[in-house]
Amino acid sequence: MSVQKVRSEIPEALEYPFDKLTQTTPNDLFYVRDHFPRPVVDIDQWFLSFDGTVSNSLKLSYQDILALPAHSVTATLECAGNNRTFLHPPVPGVQWDLGGVSNAKWTGVALADVIERAGLRPETLEIVFEGDDAGPVNHFGQEEIVKFARSLPVEKVMNRSVLLAYAMNGEILSEAHGFPLRLIVPGWYAVASVKWLNRITAIDHVFQGHFQTADYSYVNRTGPEPVRVPITEMLVKALIAHPQSNAVVPKGKLCEISGAAWSGAAKISSVEISTNGGATWLEASLDPGAEVGVWTMWRFSWLVPSEPCECVLMARATDENGNVQPPAHNPDHETYMINFCFPIPVSVE
Fold first, then answer.
1. Residues of the chain with pLDDT > 90: what percent?
2. Mean pLDDT of 148-170
3. Which residues pair with 274 in a beta bridge?
4. Nearest 5°: phi and psi at 331?
5. Contact (CB, 8 A) for 342 and 326
6. CA quadruple 29, 33, 37, 41: dihedral positive or negative?
7. Which residues, in sequence order, are CB contacts of 52 under 8 Å at separation 6+?
8. Residues 185, 251: one domain?
């Protein structure tokens, strides 16, 4: 029976066994990333508050949430630190291999519907989402106790694909995935999809919370001066599920290379495969129906060399906006947003 790989026990980090890749990830295999000890929620006492720069403050019970119109979206969630094991020299953080990512169908309430009830005042700039989990952090050299919180800009929260989700793959959220309510932000790294959500606050300034300033941020050099900005949209990426790293493949036979590709910016338009460490590339076949922010399955039929040798497999994705998976990690991304073409060595025997 397949089990998740334990990368950390407290706080819990469980990796999806990527070699078991399917279009929809079973709930019991979906990767888990906690930042603090998991909170215990009494559903009879729980409520979601919405306050700040709004016309009508809200306090919604679990039953209130369930009574609102339901919506579903399919979204791939990826930890911003996924694939850290491919960085050399090793870097700090959860040592994700391939499986800090999973895909599910999420059901809940469109955030825009709740915002409409609250009514944002004109000065609102961002919306802050706070979970019920809390713990110590080193915030720019100062030890602090904080709750896990992230913000979204006003223009993002009005996208009706952003959900307050209470179910995944047709089942009520488990504690590991944020019961009773979590935010789902399709196309963005999963740090934005706050679990155990219990408070939403509209603000008239830029949020300076720990998890998008001191952590989960990177250096952006697109402006006149480099600035540190929060991690948001998933970068284009393809990962190989089969064969696995260091696998032995029989010489002279056909071998199917397969995996998944995704981008938070646009639909995947192509995946290319190299069997010689990036020297040459050939196009793989994509499953139909590609969606933004949802992984697309792909496959490539490889005629394995007829003599024993060592080969390095790579996959390279391109999305419809022309974003291409790069050959090397961007150092400005530090230990996050790792999306270069990963080498998968195999032995031909």
1. 97
2. 97
3. 314
4. -60, -25
5. no
6. negative
7. 124, 128, 200, 201, 202, 203
8. no
